[in-house]
Amino acid sequence: MEKMKALLVYGPGDLRCERIDIPAYREDEVLIRVQACGICGSDLPRALDGAVHYFPNILGHEFSGSIAAAGRLVNGFKSGDRVTAAPLLPCGKCGYCQIGRPALCEAYSFIGSRKQGAMAEYVAVKAANVLKLDDEVEYAAGAMLEPLTVALHGIDRIAFKAGAAAAVFGAGTIGLLTLQCLKARGAGRVYVIDIVPEKLELAKKLGADIVINSRENDPVEFMAGAGKPQIVIETAGTSITQRQSIEAAAKLGQVVFIGTATKDLTLSPAGFEQILRGELEITGSWMSYSAPFPGYEWTAAADTIKTGRIKTAPLITHTFKLEDGIEAFQVMRDKKANAIKVMFNI
Length: 346
Description:
46% of the residues are buried. This protein has helices at residues 43-48, 95-98, 139-143, 145-155, 173-184, 197-205, 219-226, 239-248, 269-277, 296-307, 326-333, and strands spanning 3-11, 14-21, 29-39, 62-70, 82-85, 88-89, 109-110, 122-126, 130-132, 166-169, 190-194, 210-213, 231-234, 254-257, 281-284, 316-320, 341-345. By secondary structure, it is of the alpha/beta class. It has 11 helices and 17 strands. It folds into 2 domains: 3-146 and 289-345, Quinone Oxidoreductase, Chain A, domain 1, CATH 3.90.180.10; 158-284, Rossmann fold (3-Layer(aba) Sandwich), CATH 3.40.50. Keywords: Metal-binding, Oxidoreductase, Zinc. InterPro entries: ADH-like_C (IPR013149), ADH-like_N (IPR013154), ADH_Zn_CS (IPR002328), GroES-like_sf (IPR011032), NAD(P)-bd_dom_sf (IPR036291), Zn_alcohol_dh (IPR050129).
């Protein structure tokens, strides 16, 4: 059996780069030679805290590469094709899958958590999950497709008119992609709120009209004076920004929560009253899939990256090799490093 290099999680903080068997692929799958794989925020507890479904585990669900081989039932792909892949593996049978909402599947699997991921030289993926990339799309940009689909899906949870003011809480990967998507969709003034000056500076370069350092200014008070946003997208996942997202919205405003919560959220009676009196629309956004699978989000993201309408390269702040192992995850968690997207070049 031929071998490949892979980064395996054996326990909390126990990551080892080893040579293991290249995965077998089924008749409806392709084998992808991975070239780039990003670290998602959800990978941090898996790698550093041992929050995985089993050990050893190969993480990685934001990736791109080229077709190395294909099963006998696969059509439309040939060796060398540049590709990326949607990591969700929906059951296709539950009620939500049947109505075209695979992200809500009740019995899904997922590449990089329940199934071997792409922090390895090769990964086997169902052909139905694979999307071709144009030859001019760099592998690092292809690996940014998955987080871009998350931003697109979040925006499409609401409907807004061109020129509407918007606020994005959090200037991480999803926040900065959301900023660019809002601008591309015709949003008017866009605020971006964060606590890291370097991230806010990048947000300005990527199109933010006003940036707010919430360590220096109360964003709710600032926007109350400068003009409340009709659209608020929360991507940071902190209880403070979640509360501020509701408090900042204009009456009849729309609030989308993308960031995953890590602590309890408490609203004061006055804060909750704003939802009622302002008749706010509040919704969540989960992953990035629609029907036909994997969804319009993926084809749209591929197109925006190809045409250059969305910039991904400035978000990639650190690159590593698989042999660097845990260092890549530590850099991403280190607040002093000001990391946005950390990428493995494989």
